[in-house]
């Protein structure tokens, strides 16, 4: 079965970006000139997803406004390639909003989509994980799902210094980019990490994950954690890992967002000399 639905959860508190997230959704903070929600929805569209489900909290309606086709003033309408892209997105995917009334964890955010997913396998894109490159990771992962009929999580080799902040897997390679996940450990000490392969926020999941989430006890921070439910899937029916080589930034932290912004700004011919001289390269 082809994957046509993708969930983009953005209803978290975004405490690492306080105080700005008191009034602005984290997914609307620009990476140079484009918010992470734009990248996430565009990635889903490029992967051929037909239905994008954004899980948000009350007060994050700036996201809905962002994907509105019209501009408030015609004065701006002569220039804006990003506006064209928004129209293109609107013509190619259907955007649905699901509210999570309390931020009870990523697992709970996914659970709110049970009815709309309606029995199908589906993708999850976390906008905090910005992946840049020519290949659409979620579309490559969908192909692995269709071939192997197994849930797939994205994994990436990371420098060991980053392992204590991430979920890390013990995994056996079965094809060049595909691994069987044997175990996963949340935020291990460097010396306890089972590998240097970290879980990054892209998932293709069986519909059965909803049943598992419903049975999952509250985990870290008193929240329903998606990783706990995936851990159960690994033990019960198995989960595959898709290792991707593309550039990745954790834009869920101010430092990661700054690095990604510099990276993106340097792609722009108009600014590159100015930026280089600013950094005295
Ligand atoms: P994080 O665990 O990074 O939390 O969520 P956060 O709230 O975004 O940020 P910090 O840690 O407080 O700084 C991972 C993803 O899951 C979503 C978030 O919006 C983010 O995209 N999420 C998290 C929800 O949608 N609902 C939740 O209850 C928790």
How are the SSEs ordered, and which strands pair?
Blueprint: E1 5-9, E2 30-31, E3 34-35, H1 36-46, E4 51-56, H2 62-66, H3 81-92, E5 94-99, H4 106-111, H5 114-117, E6 122-125, E7 129-132, H6 137-148, E8 151-157, E9 167-173, E10 178-186, E11 197-205, H7 209-215, H8 226-236, E12 239-243, E13 247-250, H9 254-265, H10 269-279
Parallel strand pairs: 1-4, 1-6, 4-5, 8-12
Antiparallel strand pairs: 2-3, 6-11, 7-13, 8-11, 9-10, 10-12
The chain binds uridine 5'-triphosphate.
The CATH superfamily appears as Spore Coat Polysaccharide Biosynthesis Protein SpsA, Chain A
Number of domains: 1
Largest sheet: 9 strands, mixed
Give me the count of strands: 13
The number of helices is 10
N-to-C CA distance: 50 Å
Output the CATH topology: Spore Coat Polysaccharide Biosynthesis Protein SpsA, Chain A
Order of helices and strands: EEEHEHHEHHEEHEEEEHHEEHH
The largest sheet has its strands arranged as 5-4-1-6-11-8-12-10-9
The fraction of residues assigned to DSSP E strands is 15-25%
* Low-confidence region ranges: none
Bound molecules: uridine 5'-triphosphate
How confident is the prediction overall: mean pLDDT? 92
Backbone shape:
globular
By CATH reckoning, the class would read Alpha Beta
Oligomeric organization of the protein chains: single chain
Rg, nearest Å = 19 Å
What share of the residues lie within helices? 25-40%
Which CATH architecture would you pick?
Answer: Alpha-Beta Complex
Helix/strand/pairing class, anyone? alpha/beta
């Amino acid at each position: 079965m082809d994957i046509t639905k993708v969930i983009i959860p953005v209803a978290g508190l975004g405490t690492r970006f306080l105080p700005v997230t008191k009034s602005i959704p984290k997914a609307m903070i620009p990476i140079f000139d484009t918010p992470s929600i734009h990248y996430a929805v565009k990635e889903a569209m490029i992967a051929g997803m037909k239905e994008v489900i954004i899980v948000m909290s009350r007060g994050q309606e700036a996201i809905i406004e962002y994907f509105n086709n019209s501009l408030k003033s015609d004065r701006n309408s002569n220039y804006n390639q990003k506006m064209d892209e928004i129209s293109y997105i609107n013509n190619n995917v259907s955007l649905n909003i699901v509210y999570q009334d309390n931020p009870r964890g990523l697992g709970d955010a996914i659970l709110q989509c049970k009815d709309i997913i309606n029995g199908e396998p589906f993708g999850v894109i976390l906008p905090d994980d910005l992946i840049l490159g020519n290949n659409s990771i979620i579309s490559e992962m969908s192909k692995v799902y269709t071939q192997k009929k197994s849930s797939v999580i994205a994994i990436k080799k990371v420098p060991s210094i980053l392992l204590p902040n991430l979920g890390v897997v013990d995994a056996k390679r079965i094809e060049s980019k595909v691994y069987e996940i044997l175990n996963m450990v949340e935020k291990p000490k460097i010396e306890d990490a089972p590998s240097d392969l970290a879980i990054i926020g892209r998932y293709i999941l069986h519909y059965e994950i909803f049943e598992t989430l419903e049975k999952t006890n509250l985990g870290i921070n008193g929240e329903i954690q998606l990783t706990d439910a995936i851990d159960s899937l690994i033990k019960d029916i198995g989960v595959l890992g898709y290792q991707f080589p593309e550039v990745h930034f954790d834009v869920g932290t101010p430092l990661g967002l700054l690095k990604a912004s510099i990276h993106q700004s340097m792609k722009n011919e108009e600014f590159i000399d100015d930026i280089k001289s600013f950094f005295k390269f």
